[in-house]
Amino acid sequence: MKKLLLVFFSSLLLISCSNECEKRKSINEKTNSVQDSVQTESVMEWTVKENERKANEDKLKKEKAAERQRMLDERRKVKKEKHLSFLHVDSLNGKSISFYLGNSETNELVKSFYQGEFLPSDNDKTFELLDILVEKNEVIYPFYFHCLNSICLLSDGALSEVMGKPCLKMVSNYPNYTFSFFVENSELFEDYTSMIGYELFFQKYGTSNIKISESEFLESLKKDLNLDNPEIKMLYDKFISGIEQVKKNMED
User: Fold this and answer.
1) Within a 13 Å sphere around the CA of 112, how many CA atoms are in the beta-carbon half?
2) Integer Cα distance of 176 and 183 in angstroms
3) Is the sign of the CA dihedral 40, 45, 48, 51 positive or negative?
4) Are 130 and 151 in contact (CB under 8 A)?
5) Residue 3 pLDDT more than 90?
6) Residue 39 CA: distances (Å) to CA of 31, 42, 250
7) What pLDDT shows up at residue 197?
8) Can you list the alpha helix ranges (DSSP code H) found in the chain?
9) How many CB atoms neighbour CB 109 within 10 A?
10) 169-186 burial string, b = 16+ CB within 10 Å, else e?
11) Contact 110, 146 (CB under 8 A)
12) Strand partners of residue 92
């Protein structure tokens, strides 16, 4: 009898444990289902927010790119207007501008530049133009000097770094004409002084390919300039000191 009771209660206990396990399993399954649902909703919510964030980032990038392009276009427009307003003159050195534009010795690339068909930049076309502008030509050099001056006023960044050589060559070729011009044009005088100063500094360290040495250039300038003219003498002295200051700044 005792054995029967023991078996009976054991069976009840097993059934109860089994029911309890099933109940817990059901609860766990429901809990897991709820958790999975919550997790799925969280993932979906995160995905939506992440997509919105990326969309906003892309929109912001496009807006910034458009603004940069707008500013670049505006800068080019202002640059071109400045270039043309300086470049377009009625006469140079007592001759009408049509004399230079119609002269067979005037290079077609220079004419194209003067007419605003392209702006100077850090490229081969501009480098070719610079080489042409500093060729010695006793007939059209005032026009070439004028065009070179426009490039000096417009140059910045990489282009300004290569302007020293043509500026030095122009001054070396036509010292009296250029210095007489500088008397009335202080901005360009400062530009030429700085650019030539940089070029002579680079020559000192072997990174410039100009053929004339600093001492030869300055000695030739001193010899050719009319230093009896007080204005020219003052400008020459200022030119020398300006070059020395540029080199000193580069050394520091």
Assistant:
1) 12
2) 11
3) negative
4) yes
5) no
6) 12, 5, 63
7) 94
8) 2-87, 97-101, 108-114, 124-133, 141-154, 157-160, 164-173, 175-183, 186-204, 214-224, 230-251
9) 17
10) bbbbbbbeebbbbbeeee
11) no
12) 95
Q: How far apart are CA 172 and CA 187, in angstroms?
A: 19
Contact of 196 with 243, CB cutoff 8 Å:
yes
User: Is the overall model pTM greater than 0.85, yes or no?
Assistant: no
State the chain's mean pLDDT as an integer.
83
Residue with tokens 């200022």: 238
- Between the two ends of the chain, the Cα-to-Cα distance in Å is 112
User: Which residue did the predictor score with more confidence, 63 or 4?
Assistant: 63
- State which H helix or E strand residue 92 sits in: strand 91-92
The token pair at 27 is: 């609860």
| Mean local confidence (pLDDT), 33-54 | 72
> Which 3-state string (H, E, C) describes 2-15?
HHHHHHHHHHHHHH
Distance CA 108, CA 114 (A): 10
Letter for the amino acid at 137? N
Report whether 195 contacts 160 (CB < 8 A): yes
